[in-house]
Write a structure and sequence with these properties.
This protein has 150 residues and is an all-alpha fold. The protein contains three helices and no strands. Helix 2 packs across helix 3. The two termini are 37 Å apart.
């Protein structure tokens, strides 16, 4: 939420509460213009307006403080972002290579059935799995190396 929106909502809420309080103080305030009740209603409205302005200012200060903290934290973590990205690519590359390593013996064992045979489907499935995950793993390491050079 934007701080201006929060301030408006709080300001409107305080004004409505001030008007309700002014109405509850007494109906005599509307009958006699110079009565103390009219002055009290005006004071309640003025206090409600001041509270609304204070709420808006407080929300702006909170937003500026939050932005400053985010900038400071971002500046502190900036050097780690590059290293973290490279490390992430290497870890995902290692995990992508695991299925290729697991399915490679099955592919080797059923290689004699590559064209037609009892293990034809097993061989084709193993080839697809090994090819896809080998590509993903190698490309992940390749991207990590390219990112490390840049």
């Amino acid at each position: 939420m934007k701080p201006e929106y929060i301030g408006r909502v709080l300001g409107i809420g305080v004004r409505v509460a001030g008007r309700i309080a002014g109405q509850r103080v007494g109906p005599l305030a509307t009958t006699v213009p110079g009565s103390p009740q009219v002055n009290a209603n005006a004071q309640v409205r003025a206090a409600a307006d001041r509270a609304a302005q204070t709420a808006v200012q407080a929300s702006r200060i909170a937003a500026q403080t939050g932005q400053g903290a985010a900038r400071g934290l971002g500046g502190m973590l900036r050097p780690f972002r590059r290293v973290g990205g490279i490390l992430w690519l290497e870890i995902t590359g290692a995990f992508f290579l695991l299925p290729a390593v697991v399915f490679a013996p099955t592919m080797w064992r059923t290689r004699s059935s590559w064209a037609a045979g009892p293990d034809h489907r097993t061989f084709l499935a193993s080839v697809v799995v090994v090819t896809v995950f080998l590509y993903l793993g190698v490309s992940s390491f390749w991207r990590a190396r390219r990112k490390a050079k840049a």
